[in-house]
Amino acid sequence: MKKLTLFCCLLIFGNCLVFAQYPKEFPNDNEGFGKAYAEFIKTNCTRDDCKEVSGKFPQAIVSGKAATYFFKVKGITQTMLVKKASAYPVFMQFAALLLTLETTKANNSAIDKNFDILQNLIDKAKPGNIKEFNGYVEYLTNLYSKNALYFSNTNIWKATGEYNVEFKEDKPVFVFQSADLIGTSSIDTLVIKNERGMYYPLENLWIGLSGTILFNRSGFD
Questions:
Q1: End-to-end CA distance of the chain
Q2: Of 150, 152, 188, 194, which one has the greatest count of Cβ atoms within 10 A?
Q3: pTM of the predicted structure, to 2 decimals
Q4: Helices (DSSP H) in 125-165: which residue ranges?
Q5: Which of 140, 139, 73 lies closest to 106, judged by CA?
Q6: pLDDT tens for the 221 residues of the chain, in order
């Protein structure tokens, strides 16, 4: 009986310790926010990518491009805390997304709108079930870092031309008025010229309205 009681006490203490490490809110100033956010990741994740991201994040939120969107970043992360998002992968991946803002070719309007969409997705998510939110964070990380509408180990789709980001029926959608879509693999290249259409990133769905298809196989003219 004593052994059982001791085990229960240790279990309760362990749960309290884990709960104590989960913050209710990050500081409201950029510097304090960056340090607390990074410390939260480091304390709860020992992976190399967590260490790398948490090392770069405090400076990025103070003087990097992410600082421009601090008000929206603060709002999103506060809702992430309310929904009990995990330090890894959710908070780490969101920090990694913010780091990609330094080199992305995405226009400011699209970036700003995507923050609004992320806020909408996390608002409607249920605690413990934020898969759709995290999926869009991961998608945007690839979009901003690789300039790719779609990226996998075998295929990449990129687009030239500007696009508008919209939120329709609780889903993000990219609207292209005129663009060239370029799909590449190790052996093939497919180009759709002067394409007009819409892309739904969470469904990996392209709805094309016009365009001319050109096909090229590697090694052939």
A1: 80
A2: 150
A3: 0.85
A4: 131-146
A5: 140
A6: 444 454 444 444 444 444 447 999 999 999 999 999 999 999 999 999 999 999 999 999 999 999 999 999 999 999 999 999 999 999 999 999 999 999 999 999 999 999 999 999 999 999 989 999 999 999 999 999 998 888 888 889 888 888 999 999 999 999 999 888 888 888 888 888 888 889 999 998 888 887 655 555 444 34
How many whole angstroms separate alpha carbon 99 and alpha carbon 91? 13
- Is the Cβ–Cβ distance between 81 and 37 less than 8 Å? no
The Cα 38–Cα 208 span in angstroms is: 42
Burial of 77 (0-12, 13-18, 19+ CB in 10 A): buried
Torsion of CA 123, 18, 71, 63, to 10 degrees: -140
φ/ψ (deg, to 5) at 189: -135, 125
- What gap in Å lies between CA 9 and CA 13, rounded to an integer? 6
**Tokens representing residue 213 in the block:** 């298809």
CB half-sphere exposure, 151, CA atoms < 13 A: 13
Q: Which two tokens stand for residue 184?
A: 């590449």
Q: Rounded CA gap, 57 and 38, in Å? A: 7
Beta carbons within 8 Å of 207's beta carbon, 6+ residues apart: 197, 198, 199, 200
Rg from Cα positions in the chain: 21
**188 near 197, Cβ under 8 Å?**
no
